Prior knowledge:
This protein has 26 helices and 16 strands. It has 598 residues and is an alpha+beta fold. It has a five-stranded antiparallel beta sheet, sandwiched between helices. A five-stranded mixed beta sheet has the order 13-12-14-15-16, sandwiched between helices. Strands 6-9-10-11 form a four-stranded antiparallel beta sheet, with helices on one face. The chain binds zinc ion.
Amino acid sequence: MESQVEEIKKKLDIVDVINRFVTLKKRGHHFIANCPFHQEKTPSFIVSPELQIFKCFGCGKAGDMFTFIQEFERVDFKESLEELAKIAGVKLEKSAQYSAVESKRQRLFLLNLETAKFYHYMLTSHSLGKTALEYLINRGIQLDTVKLFKIGFSPIDPQLLSAYLTKKGFTVGELIASGTFGQSSYNRHQLYDRFQGRLVFPLADFRDRILGFSGRVLPGAKKELAKYINSPETSIYHKSQTVFGLNLSKEFVKKNSTVIVTEGEFDMISPFQAGFKNIVAIKGTAFTSDQLQLLRRYADTLILALDSDFAGNNAARKSIELADSFDFDIQVLDLGQDFKDPDEAIHQNLDFFHQQLDHPLPIWDYLINSAVITNDPNTIKGKKQILSLVLPFISKINNSVIRSDYLHKLAETIGSTLESVTQESSKISAPLPALSREGPGKGFDSPPTPPPDSQIDNFEQYLLILIFSAQKPAIIARRLRSKYQFITPRFASVYQSLLLVKKYYPKKFFNSLPPELQPIFQDIHLSASNLKLEPIHRRREISKIINYIQSKKIKQQLADISRQLSVAEKNDDSAKITQLEIEYNQLLATLSGHQSSK
Ligand SMILES: [Zn+2]
C-alpha cells in the first residue's frame, strides 16, 4: 500500500487536487485560499507545491493530499486512497481496495443505490410508474433530466422493494438502517416502504453517493398525506448537512462563485434543465450552518430564489442573518408578484426569469422594496409597518458600514431622519457579534511577530521564519553565525542544517532533514512564504528579534542571580555577594545597551 500511496503522490500535484475543491490563488511560490475548514475573511490556508503539503494558520489543519481529502470529505484513509487513485488513474491492488462488506456505511450507500435504481426503473420502464412519469412530463421535466437526477417512483405495494433488496443480499437489519422502511405496528418483521405511491428524489452528497430520499405525493393523493416526506436521520443521512442538487451543480457553482438557492426539488431541477446550472435546493427556507459552510467552499455570492413570500417568516430571517454571518454577498432573485416560485417562472416566462437573474437585488434593497409595495410609506400606519418588516433585518447586518447605509436608505424611504431610525433600530437588538472567524494566524498580511512576552522558542522560530523568507536563506544564515546562537535544540538543528547547504532548494533541504525535524521545517517553510518583506525590513526585523532574545536571556540570568544573591545573603557569604553583584551590574549594563539599540 505504501508504494501505491507514493505512486499516487508522484502522479498528482497537491495544487490540482485541492483546486478541485477550493479555488487557489497563486502567491509567489505558493497558493493561498480562504480556509475550507474554518470561517475566515482573509486567507490563511496555504498550499506548498514544493513540499506537496497544505496548512491553515488559522485553525491549524495541515497535511498532504490524502489528509486534505479525509478532512474535506470527512472520509477515512481508505476512501481518500480510493478517490485519489481514481483521479490519478492508478489501479489499486486487491488488498488496498475498498471492500464493501467492511463498512456498514458503505453497505448503506450500496443499498440506497439499489433502491434508487429500483424506483427509477419503476418510473421509467414499468407500467406501475406510467401515471407518475406522465405527471413529470406534463410538468415540463424532460426524460433526460429524469435520468440525470435519477428520479423514481415507489409503487403502491408494501413488499415489492423489500423483496428486491433481499434478493440482492441485503439483510432486514440493513433495510431498517437505511431509513427507507418502516416496521408494521402489528408485526415488527413486516417492513413497509415509506415512499409508496410517491415520486422519489434521491438525495445525494456532493460526491454523488445517495444518502436518502425525498418523496412527493402525486396529484389526487389522499389529503391527509404530507406533500413531501424525507428519509429519517440515519447513519449516513443528516438533513441539516444535505444540499439537494449540489452533486450535479458544484462545478458550475464553483465556476461562477455564485450559488442560486431554491426551496424545493422542482425549483432546483427546472432552472437546471433550462441551463441555470449553478443552483441547489435547501428544502425549506431555513439554512443550517453546515449547509452554508458547504456552499461557502464554492461560492461567495448567494442568490436567494425562494418562494415570493419568504421574507415574511422567521425561519427566513434567521437564515439571512446566518448567511450574513458567513460573509456571503446575499442577493435576491425577485420574481415579482406574478410567479409563486422559480419552477413556475421558468415554465411560464423564461425570458423574465433570465432577465431577473441577470439583475439580482441586494437582499437589503429587496426587503425595503417589498415592504414598500405592500405598505404606504406616506401614512403613519404604513411607516410603522415598513419599519417593523425591515428593521429586524437591517439592524442585524454584520458590516457596520453597510448597516448604516441601509438605515439611511430606510429613513429616506419613510421620510424620516437617520437619527430616529437608528434609535428605533437600537431598540430591536444590537447587531450580532461577528462569529469568530479569525484564528491566531490573522491572515497573510500581518507577519506573525511574537508578542514581546513570548518564550524564547517562539522568537527563535520566528527568527528562522525570517531567515527562510529570504531569497537566499543559506547566505543570511551564514551572516548571522557570529551574531546569534540558537538555544532551542530543534531550531538550532534546523539552523545548523541550513549552514551546511550551498544553494537552498526547499524540497532538497526538506529531504535532507532527519524525520523528526521535517514537520518543524514544514511549518517554518509555510510561514516564511506568508512573509513578504523587503530585504531592508527583513534585516531590521532580524536584529530586532535577536535583541529581544538577548534581552530575554539576560533577564533570565538576572533573575537567576537574584535568587543566588538571596541565598548568599542568608548564608552571610560576603565574597559570593560581592561577586554576584558585579555580575548583576554587568548584565544590567548589557541589557540597557540591548534595549536602547532597538
Ligand atoms: Zn483553517
